[in-house]
């Protein structure tokens, strides 16, 4: 694939993540093309169907998250790295859930594989923080995913003020801490949030997945 074609593909996927992740079924491939700065024919040349585009955008989400998780595993401060990773997963989780809801109840194999790779890496990052003594030893990746998914589903259903989401994340991180201290990481500082900016800005109503649908991980 030529360099310009690769760049077009990445712009299309980033646009699809935004358009479908924030608008759900109300988004269109035409919206994606406009945001990516390409023609609609270019979109369909890379992705013959809307479903193929959404699937690829979801795989890209997990691939990016896996790269971030690997960086967290290699970071010198495992606690701060885990906390930053959890925040990122919660903040991006609403888009992911909305994309996943558009693919039906059964996630495509490529999405499942990418999601499982992320989960295994998150488990490693969690165990590193536990080995450092900063995270409760009785917390597992399943509990972590449950809480991340809960906050992501809330923001997928309706925008919440960024400051409220920030405090909710702090509550989660404090609950994981071995000493019950706020979730800032060793030597870290709490990231300020604007008091009234919506944490999830949308151009229309989100379409969260049904509550009983397996959602391919955070």
Q: Rg, please?
A: 18 Å
Calculate the terminal CA-CA distance, rounded to whole Å.
31 Å
Percent of residues in β-strands: under 5%
Low-confidence stretches: 182-205, 207-215
Shape descriptor reads elongated
Largest sheet: none
Mean pLDDT: 84
Helix and strand sequence = HHHHHHHH
Helices, by number, come to 8
Helix amount: 55-70%
Return the structural class: mainly alpha
Number of beta strands: 0
List keywords for this structure.
mainly alpha, 218 residues, 8 helices, single chain
Fold and architecture overview:
With 218 residues, the chain is mostly helical. Helices cover 64% and strands 0% of the residues. It is built from 8 helices and no strands. The chain has helices at 3-23, 29-36, 40-46, 50-74, 78-101, 109-131, 141-157, 162-176. Helix 1 packs across helix 4 and helix 4 runs antiparallel to helix 5. The radius of gyration is 18 Å and the shape is elongated. Residues 182-205 and 207-215 have low confidence and may be disordered.
How is this structure best summarized?
The chain is mainly alpha-helical and 218 residues long.
Furnish the topology, listing elements before pairings:
Layout: H1 3-23, H2 29-36, H3 40-46, H4 50-74, H5 78-101, H6 109-131, H7 141-157, H8 162-176
Helix pairs in contact: 1-2, 1-4, 1-5, 4-5, 4-6, 5-6, 5-7
């Amino acid at each position: 694939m030529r360099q310009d074609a690769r760049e077009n593909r990445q712009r299309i996927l980033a646009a699809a993540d935004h358009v479908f992740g924030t608008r759900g079924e109300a988004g269109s491939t035409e919206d994606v093309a406009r945001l990516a700065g390409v023609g609609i024919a270019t979109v369909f040349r890379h992705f013959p169907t809307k479903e193929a585009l959404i699937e690829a955008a979801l795989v890209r989400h997990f691939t990016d998250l896996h790269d971030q998780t690997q960086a967290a595993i290699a970071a010198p401060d495992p606690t701060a790295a885990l906390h930053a990773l959890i925040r990122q997963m919660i903040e991006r989780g609403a888009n992911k859930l909305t994309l996943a809801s558009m693919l039906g109840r059964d996630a495509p194999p490529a999405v499942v594989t990418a999601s499982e790779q992320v989960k295994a890496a998150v488990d490693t990052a969690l165990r590193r923080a536990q080995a450092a003594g900063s995270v409760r030893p009785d917390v597992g990746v399943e509990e972590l995913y449950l809480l991340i998914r809960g906050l992501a589903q809330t923001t997928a259903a309706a925008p919440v003020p960024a400051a409220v989401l920030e405090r909710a994340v702090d509550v989660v991180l404090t609950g994981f801490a071995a000493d019950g201290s706020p979730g800032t990481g060793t030597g870290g500082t709490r990231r300020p949030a604007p008091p009234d900016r919506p944490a999830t800005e949308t151009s229309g109503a989100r379409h969260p997945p049904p509550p009983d649908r397996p959602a391919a991980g955070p």
